Amino acid sequence: MDISLASLFAVIATALYLSLLILYLKTKLHKTINLPPGKIGWPLIGEMKDFALSCARGELEKFFSDRMGRYNSPDVFKTSLLGKKIVVFCSPAGNKFVFSNENKLVKSWVPDSASKIVLADHADVEKTAKLQIRTFAYEFLKPDVIQKYIKTMDSIISQHLDQEWAQKQTLTVYPIVQKLLFSLSCSIFMGIEDKNLTRKLEDQFEIVTSGLFSMPFDLPGTKVRRGMRAGYEMRSELRKIVRQKRSSENKDGNSGSVNLLSYLLSATDSEGKLFSEEEIACIVLAVLIGSQHTTSSLITNLVYFLADNPAVYDRVLKEQLEIRKLKVDDKQLLNWEDTKRMKYSRIVLNETLRIAPTAIGFFRDVIHDFNFAGYTVPKGWKIFLSPNTIHKNPKYYPNPDKFDPSRFEGKGPSPFTFTAFGGGPRMCPGNEFAPHLVLVFMHNLLIRFTWEKLIPKEKIIYDGAVNGPEHGLPIKLQRRCHEPEIDAS
């Protein structure tokens, strides 16, 4: 017994010694490398606590600007977030460098928390899904496909506003918009019209998205554990849908209307094999997250800023009424050409994304050591590109807290200073889908209603991977009695 106990202590002591030795050697190695300035913080936790507090206070840009100033480093600094050593790039030159070196020095990286929640716990399925998600997202979110969606968007949104908004005097914008867009996404991407099924999927969706950007600790009570459970349940429902759709198409011999799900059922991988039910479920879930969650946030923020800026509101309204007058009657739906005419509305949308970028940021994995701004970034570290490091920097946007769409008139912002959708080969696949969906929504909202905020000074905060008003944006709503006169001049 004593010998066994002594042996156990010897093993523990040896393991502890080796761990400390490895840590010492790594620390010594890093000291010989000219790493960017900054602090890694506590083991595992890093600076995640400060980061999360900044998000919750609606001061995310302060997290970055404080460190840029503290280390006198306007281009890069190091930190630790989500359990990873990270270099934050803070300048247009940094954005350009990363976007120009995709798959050369860096590659896309998804936080472990998101992978655990969205992807199945099977190595082969996870590998296939990761490779295919962006391919199919681009395929079904590209401009020539979006054109076909405009009338469907207009019809669904118009009906929703008449049924869900028109009878209300007050409502909270974010949750009702989120329900609408989830239903719309299910219809467009999967052909699901069953409201009970949509509601069943939606119940799990909010839990899934709330854990995407959190510490990747799979422990009871954590957002990741809840998200993983919700992700599993969503994929289970999606597998049933895939199975039913595949059976129906095999029986009928055709797929009927083409949507993302129908396309995936007949698509093959690099070896010519059809995708499994699990692989398709993972891909569809990822596209739902990418197309729906940030768009709900963007619409809510746009409603928020239009309420605070009456001159901007009036100009957007004028543009939308002019487009409405081109229609033969009130039942004629919007089309692609109509959304392309919404030029001022589009720059208002861009200014909303500048001042409150919906995406918290974009990650890259360093696949080769490289030098930037006089510092070495080692292989295996992660890069974090956050729009907040530049969008609120007065060097690039004077008086950055002012909502001023004119910044996007003429030549617009300088290159690599507006990155709401990322940039380069890895630009968000929804960079055209989301704006067109938002423009269709805003057209329908503006021609029907006026509104005012019930919490005038409500903060915009980050909760999980996206942002929005702290209380979901409660508003007082009023139906338009008549269309305002349009000044012909």
Number of strands: 12
Report the helical percentage. 40-55%
**Main beta sheet:** 5 strands, mixed
Global geometry = globular
CATH arch. level architecture: Orthogonal Bundle
User: Which strands sit side by side, in order, in the main sheet?
Assistant: 1-2-8-5-3
Number of domains: 1
What is the name of the CATH class? Answer: Mainly Alpha
Which range does the strand content fall in? Answer: 5-15%
Distance N to C terminus = 97 Å
Radius of gyration: 25 Å
Looking at the structure, the CATH topology is Cytochrome p450
Instruction: Count up the helices.
Output: 17
SS content category: alpha+beta
Q: Tell me, rounded to a whole number, the average pLDDT.
A: 86
Defining key terms:
489 residues, disordered C terminus, five-stranded mixed beta sheet, alpha+beta, Cytochrome p450
Explain this structure.
With 489 residues, the protein is of the alpha+beta class. It has one domain: Cytochrome P450 (Cytochrome p450, Orthogonal Bundle). Helices cover 54% and strands 11% of the residues. It is built from 17 helices and 12 strands. The chain has a 5-stranded mixed sheet with strand order 1-2-8-5-3. A 3-stranded antiparallel sheet has the order 4-12-9. Helix 5 (112-118) crosses helix 10 (223-252) and helix 12 crosses helix 17. The model is unreliable at 484-489 (pLDDT under 50). Keywords: Heme, Iron, Membrane, Metal-binding, Monooxygenase, Oxidoreductase, Transmembrane, Transmembrane helix. GO terms for molecular function: heme binding; iron ion binding; oxidoreductase activity, acting on paired donors, with incorporation or reduction of molecular oxygen, reduced flavin or flavoprotein as one donor, and incorporation of one atom of oxygen. Belongs to the cytochrome P450 family. This is Cytochrome P450 CYP4/CYP19/CYP26 subfamily.
